[in-house]
Amino acid sequence: MIPLPQWMRLTLYVTAVMNIAVSAAFIPGATALRAMAGLPQASHPLYISTVGVFVMLFGIGYLWAATVGRADRLFIALATVGKLSFFALLVRLWIAGALPLRAPLLGTADLIFGSLFLIWLLRTRADALAASELFRRAS
Predict the structure, then answer these.
(1) Distance CA 43, CA 35 (A)
(2) Tens of pLDDT along 28-85?
(3) Which residue of 13, 22, 106, 108 lies most exposed, with the fewest beta carbons within 10 A?
(4) φ, ψ (nearest 5 deg) of residue 70
(5) What is the pTM of this model?
(6) DSSP-derived secondary structure letter, 26
(7) Where are the alpha helices (DSSP H) in the chain?
(8) Which residues, at least 6 apart from 104, have a Cβ–Cβ distance to it below 8 Å?
(9) How far does the chain reach from its first CA to its final CA, in angstroms?
Protein backbone atom coordinates (compact mmCIF):
# COMPACT_ATOMS: atom_id res chain seq x y z
CA MET A 1 0.00 0.00 0.00
CA ILE A 2 1.30 3.40 -0.97
CA PRO A 3 0.50 6.57 1.01
CA LEU A 4 -1.71 8.97 -0.92
CA PRO A 5 -1.02 12.67 -1.38
CA GLN A 6 -3.84 15.00 -0.40
CA TRP A 7 -4.89 15.65 -4.04
CA MET A 8 -5.32 11.91 -4.65
CA ARG A 9 -7.29 11.44 -1.42
CA LEU A 10 -9.63 14.25 -2.49
CA THR A 11 -9.93 12.69 -5.96
CA LEU A 12 -10.87 9.36 -4.41
CA TYR A 13 -13.43 10.96 -2.06
CA VAL A 14 -15.11 12.77 -4.96
CA THR A 15 -15.19 9.74 -7.23
CA ALA A 16 -16.47 7.62 -4.31
CA VAL A 17 -19.44 9.95 -3.88
CA MET A 18 -20.01 9.96 -7.64
CA ASN A 19 -19.88 6.15 -7.94
CA ILE A 20 -22.14 5.57 -4.95
CA ALA A 21 -24.67 8.12 -6.23
CA VAL A 22 -24.54 6.80 -9.81
CA SER A 23 -25.08 3.23 -8.62
CA ALA A 24 -28.65 4.28 -7.76
CA ALA A 25 -29.31 4.70 -11.49
CA PHE A 26 -28.83 0.96 -11.89
CA ILE A 27 -31.59 -0.04 -9.53
CA PRO A 28 -34.01 -1.83 -11.90
CA GLY A 29 -36.83 0.64 -11.23
CA ALA A 30 -34.70 3.76 -11.77
CA THR A 31 -35.59 4.17 -15.44
CA ALA A 32 -35.92 7.96 -15.07
CA LEU A 33 -32.35 8.27 -13.78
CA ARG A 34 -31.00 6.20 -16.65
CA ALA A 35 -33.04 8.25 -19.13
CA MET A 36 -31.60 11.50 -17.72
CA ALA A 37 -28.09 10.12 -18.24
CA GLY A 38 -28.90 9.00 -21.77
CA LEU A 39 -28.42 5.34 -20.92
CA PRO A 40 -30.51 2.60 -22.54
CA GLN A 41 -33.67 1.48 -20.75
CA ALA A 42 -34.43 -2.03 -21.97
CA SER A 43 -32.40 -4.63 -20.13
CA HIS A 44 -32.97 -7.52 -17.80
CA PRO A 45 -32.87 -6.49 -14.11
CA LEU A 46 -30.01 -8.94 -13.51
CA TYR A 47 -27.69 -7.05 -15.89
CA ILE A 48 -28.64 -3.61 -14.62
CA SER A 49 -28.29 -4.73 -11.00
CA THR A 50 -24.90 -6.32 -11.69
CA VAL A 51 -23.60 -3.06 -13.15
CA GLY A 52 -24.97 -1.20 -10.13
CA VAL A 53 -23.24 -3.57 -7.73
CA PHE A 54 -19.86 -3.12 -9.45
CA VAL A 55 -20.23 0.67 -9.56
CA MET A 56 -21.13 0.66 -5.84
CA LEU A 57 -18.27 -1.71 -4.91
CA PHE A 58 -15.71 0.48 -6.62
CA GLY A 59 -17.25 3.52 -4.90
CA ILE A 60 -16.80 1.82 -1.53
CA GLY A 61 -13.22 0.92 -2.50
CA TYR A 62 -12.47 4.55 -3.42
CA LEU A 63 -13.98 5.72 -0.13
CA TRP A 64 -11.94 3.21 1.86
CA ALA A 65 -8.66 4.16 0.15
CA ALA A 66 -9.34 7.87 0.64
CA THR A 67 -10.25 7.38 4.30
CA VAL A 68 -7.20 5.29 5.23
CA GLY A 69 -4.91 7.43 3.06
CA ARG A 70 -3.29 4.47 1.30
CA ALA A 71 -4.01 2.57 -1.89
CA ASP A 72 -2.83 -0.52 -3.64
CA ARG A 73 -1.48 0.21 -7.12
CA LEU A 74 -3.37 -2.74 -8.59
CA PHE A 75 -6.70 -1.35 -7.35
CA ILE A 76 -5.94 2.09 -8.78
CA ALA A 77 -4.72 0.51 -12.05
CA LEU A 78 -7.99 -1.45 -12.39
CA ALA A 79 -9.94 1.69 -11.56
CA THR A 80 -7.98 3.63 -14.19
CA VAL A 81 -8.64 1.07 -16.89
CA GLY A 82 -12.30 0.83 -15.87
CA LYS A 83 -12.95 4.57 -15.91
CA LEU A 84 -11.09 5.23 -19.17
CA SER A 85 -12.69 2.19 -20.83
CA PHE A 86 -16.18 3.23 -19.74
CA PHE A 87 -15.66 6.70 -21.21
CA ALA A 88 -14.32 5.20 -24.45
CA LEU A 89 -17.33 2.88 -24.61
CA LEU A 90 -19.73 5.81 -24.20
CA VAL A 91 -17.97 7.73 -26.99
CA ARG A 92 -17.94 4.71 -29.29
CA LEU A 93 -21.65 4.06 -28.77
CA TRP A 94 -22.45 7.76 -29.26
CA ILE A 95 -20.49 7.78 -32.54
CA ALA A 96 -22.44 4.67 -33.63
CA GLY A 97 -25.71 6.48 -32.85
CA ALA A 98 -26.62 4.12 -30.00
CA LEU A 99 -26.40 6.80 -27.27
CA PRO A 100 -27.24 10.50 -27.13
CA LEU A 101 -24.44 13.05 -26.74
CA ARG A 102 -25.31 13.62 -23.09
CA ALA A 103 -24.05 10.11 -22.20
CA PRO A 104 -20.38 10.75 -23.09
CA LEU A 105 -20.64 14.32 -21.81
CA LEU A 106 -21.69 13.01 -18.39
CA GLY A 107 -19.05 10.30 -18.72
CA THR A 108 -16.38 12.98 -18.99
CA ALA A 109 -16.14 12.75 -15.20
CA ASP A 110 -14.81 9.20 -15.65
CA LEU A 111 -12.28 10.50 -18.18
CA ILE A 112 -11.08 13.09 -15.68
CA PHE A 113 -10.88 10.67 -12.75
CA GLY A 114 -9.24 7.99 -14.87
CA SER A 115 -6.66 10.52 -16.04
CA LEU A 116 -5.94 11.63 -12.46
CA PHE A 117 -5.55 8.00 -11.41
CA LEU A 118 -3.13 7.47 -14.30
CA ILE A 119 -1.09 10.50 -13.22
CA TRP A 120 -0.83 9.05 -9.70
CA LEU A 121 0.22 5.66 -11.08
CA LEU A 122 2.94 7.24 -13.22
CA ARG A 123 4.21 9.40 -10.36
CA THR A 124 4.42 6.46 -7.96
CA ARG A 125 5.95 4.02 -10.43
CA ALA A 126 9.53 4.70 -9.40
CA ASP A 127 8.68 4.30 -5.70
CA ALA A 128 6.88 1.03 -6.39
CA LEU A 129 9.82 -0.31 -8.40
CA ALA A 130 12.27 0.66 -5.66
CA ALA A 131 10.14 -1.05 -2.99
CA SER A 132 9.88 -4.13 -5.17
CA GLU A 133 13.66 -4.25 -5.58
CA LEU A 134 14.18 -3.93 -1.81
CA PHE A 135 11.72 -6.75 -1.20
CA ARG A 136 13.44 -8.91 -3.80
CA ARG A 137 16.86 -8.34 -2.23
CA ALA A 138 15.56 -9.08 1.27
CA SER A 139 14.13 -12.45 0.25
Answers:
(1) 13
(2) 888 888 888 888 877 788 999 999 999 999 999 999 999 999 999 999 999 999 999 9
(3) 108
(4) -140, 155
(5) 0.86
(6) G
(7) 6-23, 31-37, 45-68, 73-95, 102-138
(8) 87, 90, 91, 94
(9) 19
